[in-house]
Design brief:
With about 70 residues, the chain is mainly alpha-helical. Helices cover about 60% and strands about 0% of the residues. The two termini are about 20 Å apart.
Length: about 70
């Protein structure tokens, strides 16, 4: 479930949903691309998705409050 992701994984998921690349996310959060890829894999596993595009599609169906965002 997206709502139970740890904060770092939730930030990665939200950044992907906004169209950021792994490299951009790594730069923004001052971590390695390897770390972000590991977090992406964890998010995919926890959400039952297999590809980033599938994850982004799932996130697009959720209310912004489920992602910790507001309009």
């Amino acid at each position: 479930s997206v709502s139970t992701l740890p904060p770092a994984e939730a930030r990665v998921a939200i950044a992907l949903a906004k169209g950021a690349s792994v490299a951009e996310i790594a730069f923004e959060h001052t971590v390695s691309a390897h770390t972000v890829r590991s977090q992406v894999k964890a998010v995919l596993a926890k959400t039952g998705t297999e590809r980033q595009a599938e994850l982004v599609g799932l996130l697009a169906t959720l209310p912004l409050t489920a992602l910790g965002l507001r309009r």
